[in-house]
Specification:
It comes from Candidatus Brennerbacteria bacterium CG_4_9_14_3_um_filter_43_9. The protein is α+β, with helices and mostly antiparallel strands and about 200 residues long. It has five helices and eight strands, in the order ααβαβαββαββββ.
């Protein structure tokens, strides 16, 4: 009697399980639930899609990082390169004692500059007159540093203490230490006459 009751109970359990599984799955399949993204059929596709998105984001971030670092590296290399330029000294022929801006010239040469050309130009020459008119010199001698490239801020910072910035490619020095030629009245200032008194005895 007990055995029949046990069999009936087992039979009831089996029927209940079959009812719960009806319409759920085909024979032999087990019901599984997967987390999947819309438009994907299985977890492998979902995983591949996520990995693809991560790879694309990584590629974009690394590309941006490389681009920015490359720009900074180019800037650092540019700063260490010497500033190329030409040095012109405009001197008045009528004042042989006025000098040729030797102190200023030496100072410029000691900076991080590569002088492609250093010339002395007579104020009376056509080139000298053109430079005087263009840069409106007030005193001669005068010196120009000209560059085809924009003068670097590091070079400009050092040189502009003793010079005048005309534009991004040009610096000008005017000699204000006597003797010099004053362009306003065309007079040489700073020359003195010396009279020596000697004892005749």
């Amino acid at each position: 009697m007990l055995t029949n009751s046990k069999k009936e109970h087992n039979q009831d359990l089996k029927e209940d399980l079959e009812k719960k599984d009806e319409g759920c799955c085909d024979d032999g399949e087990t019901k599984q639930k997967y987390i999947s993204l819309p438009g994907t059929k299985n977890p492998t596709e979902t995983l591949l899609l996520i990995l693809g998105i991560i790879f694309i984001l990584h590629f974009l971030v690394m590309g941006l990082f490389t681009f920015r670092m490359s720009g900074k590296l180019d800037e650092a290399i540019s700063i260490t390169k010497p500033q190329e330029g030409t040095l012109l000294v405009v001197v008045p022929e009528e004042c042989p004692l006025c000098g040729a801006m030797d102190i200023e010239k030496s100072f410029v040469e000691k900076q991080n500059v590569d002088l492609l050309d250093t010339r002395t130009v007579s104020a009376e020459s056509e080139e000298g007159q053109s430079l005087i008119k263009k840069y409106k010199f007030e005193h001669l001698p005068a010196m120009l540093f000209l560059s085809d490239d924009t003068i670097k801020s590091s070079v400009k910072k050092v040189l502009q203490e003793s010079s005048k910035v005309v534009d991004e490619n040009t610096l000008v020095w005017e000699d204000k230490i006597p003797p010099y030629l004053n362009m306003e009245d065309n007079k040489i200032l700073g020359l003195v006459d010396v009279i020596y008194l000697a004892d005749a005895s």
